[in-house]
From TrEMBL:
<keyword id="KW-0813">Transport</keyword>
<dbReference type="InterPro" id="IPR040079">
    <property type="entry name" value="Glutathione_S-Trfase"/>
</dbReference>
<dbReference type="GO" id="GO:0015031">
    <property type="term" value="P:protein transport"/>
</dbReference>
<dbReference type="Pfam" id="PF17171">
    <property type="entry name" value="GST_C_6"/>
</dbReference>
<dbReference type="InterPro" id="IPR033468">
    <property type="entry name" value="Metaxin_GST"/>
</dbReference>
<feature type="domain" description="Metaxin glutathione S-transferase">
    <location>
        <begin position="173"/>
        <end position="236"/>
    </location>
</feature>
<keyword id="KW-0472">Membrane</keyword>
<keyword id="KW-0653">Protein transport</keyword>
<dbReference type="Pfam" id="PF10568">
    <property type="entry name" value="Tom37"/>
</dbReference>
<dbReference type="InterPro" id="IPR017410">
    <property type="entry name" value="Metaxin1/3"/>
</dbReference>
<dbReference type="GO" id="GO:0007005">
    <property type="term" value="P:mitochondrion organization"/>
</dbReference>
<protein>
    <submittedName>
        <fullName>MTX3 protein</fullName>
    </submittedName>
</protein>
<dbReference type="InterPro" id="IPR050931">
    <property type="entry name" value="Mito_Protein_Transport_Metaxin"/>
</dbReference>
<dbReference type="InterPro" id="IPR036282">
    <property type="entry name" value="Glutathione-S-Trfase_C_sf"/>
</dbReference>
<keyword id="KW-0496">Mitochondrion</keyword>
<feature type="domain" description="Mitochondrial outer membrane transport complex Sam37/metaxin N-terminal">
    <location>
        <begin position="23"/>
        <end position="142"/>
    </location>
</feature>
<dbReference type="InterPro" id="IPR019564">
    <property type="entry name" value="Sam37/metaxin_N"/>
</dbReference>
Amino acid sequence: MAAPMELSCWGGDWGLPSLHPESLTVMAYAKFSGAPLTVNTINNSWRAPKGDLPVLVSEDIVISQPAKILNFLRKQKYNADYDLSAKQGADTLAYIALLEEKLLPALLHTFWIEADNYCSVTKPWFASKIAFPLSLYLPGKMSREALNRILLTRGGPPLYSLTEVEAQIYRDAKECLNLLSKRLGTSQFFFGDTPTTLDAFVFGFLAPIYKVCFPRVQLQEHLKQLSNLCRFCDDILTCYFRLTVSGHSPAGQDTADANLQKLTQLVNKESNLIEKMDDNLRKSPQHPPRKLTTLKLAAGGEESSPMSRLSP
């Protein structure tokens, strides 16, 4: 009997099983290959067994990074690429490299750098998922890491300013989406009727761009013009994650914006409670101020008070 396997990853919303591209990639591959993973949603990456999410644990083996996790699953006989030819395997590696070079920087920018998206969606969503006090720190840390990752690969000559970098990464991302759309064509998946590793990576990168409701949506708008890529994402969500195109579960529960709404309600309740306490204090009987007793001077000529004794 095979050892049980547990996948720790970020949670989901907006009809997605996870908002994290790398977590989505591993989850999709497990579905495609039939790997019996137990998914454990950890909304604080510092609690993960080994650093960054996703993380796969099988007995005493702990593996992070999607490529290493997928290689481990293949060694356990869960291989979604079993029927691919050598050329198709080479094409898979080439397209994955294209995704990481051309599409990933724009994806990171959309989530973590674009001010309107970060302040109104990304930061409050992750803050609502992370326990206090890390919720005050971790989203900012993730944003800084995303910016450093972008500048590390795109911040050198001839692009020096962040504005120039931003314009270039979105041009590259749109070009990448066009190439993916052309390669997919009218096929259900990239290599025919059966999903493979490439389909898992493309789904992991595209689904968050396609589904999350951002105020700044230039990359999402371009993606939605490529109907075959949108259909590709919808088909995988419907067939493999039992989610409808509208982002509802079979029971009809709308998951979109649920966590943000809960967070907003909590803040409103706290504000109302503070206002009510202020009103009660204003309406309570007021007592005249107590007359302060004269403080005696200490031997050194200074006033001896509790505050002075507490001072360092």
